[in-house]
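Q: Second attempt. The first request was missing the SMILES, so the protein and S-adenosylmethionine are both included now.
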Amino acid sequence: MRDNRFVSKTKDPNVISAMFDRVSSGYDRTNSLISLGQVNIWRKRVVAALGPAKREWVLDFAAGTGASTFPLLVKGWHAVALDFSLGMLEQGKKERPAVPFIAGDGANLPFRDGVFSAVTVSFGLRNCQDTIRVLRELLRVTRPGGRLIICEFSRPTNEVWRGVYQASILKLLPKLAALNGAEENSYRYLVDSIADWHDQPNLARVIAEAGWGSVTWQNLAGGAVAIHRAVNLHQTEGPSK
Ligand SMILES: C[S@@+](CC[C@H](N)C(=O)[O-])C[C@H]1O[C@@H](n2cnc3c(N)ncnc32)[C@H](O)[C@@H]1O
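A: Got both inputs this time. The predicted holo structure:
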C-alpha cells in the first residue's frame, strides 16, 4: 500500500520543513536529475525576468540550499536567501558559503516594510500552507514599484504534451529520485503537490487577490513550468499585516 506519511494535503509547516530537512543533502543533485538539467535554464530565466541589477536588494524566498539565490548574486544583486528548513540552510551554507542565509517563515517575514526592490520565489510557493498570506508578506517587504517573480510548476498548455507529462513524466519522478538515493515519499509529495497546484491563470488571480498588480506570466517547458511577474503598485510601503 502506498505510504502517505509524508504527503501533507494541509501543508503543515512542521511536516514540510521536516521533509526538506530530510532531503537536503541530495536536494540539488536530485533536482538536476529529475529536471534533466532544465532547472539551470529556468534559473537563468528568473534572472532575466528580474532585469538588470543595479546593486539593489532582492529577497529569494523559500531559497532552500540557495541554488536559486546564487545566480542572483552572480548577476550583481544583493540577494538574501530565506527558508524555514534548517537542514536546507545548513546544506546551502556548506555548498554556497557566499550566500547570506536567513532562517524564517514566509507567514511572518523578519523584515521591515518595503526593504526589497524585488522578491523571487523558485519552486517554493506551492509548498506554503497559506499562499495568500505569504504573497501579502512578500508585498509588504517590497518597495512601491518593486517586483515579484515566481517560478513554479504549472500546467502544460498543449493537450498531447500535458497527457504525456501527467501520465508518464510526473509519475516517473519519485522512482528517478529514489535511484539517486532520495526518499521516494518526499518526491511523491512533489508530484501530488504539482497536480493540486494552480494553473497559470489561477495563480495569476491568487497573486492579484493578495494585492499585487500588473500580473503576467510566461510559459517554460511548454507550460510545465511558468514564471509569473507582478508589481507592487501601492504608492506607500505596506499594506500592513
Ligand atoms: C522545492 S524547495 C525550493 C528551493 C529553491 N528555491 C530552489 O529553487 O532550489 C522549496 C523550499 O520552500 C521552503 N518553504 C516552504 N514553505 C516555506 C515557508 N512558509 N517559509 C519558508 N520557507 C518555506 C522549504 O523549506 C524548501 O526549502
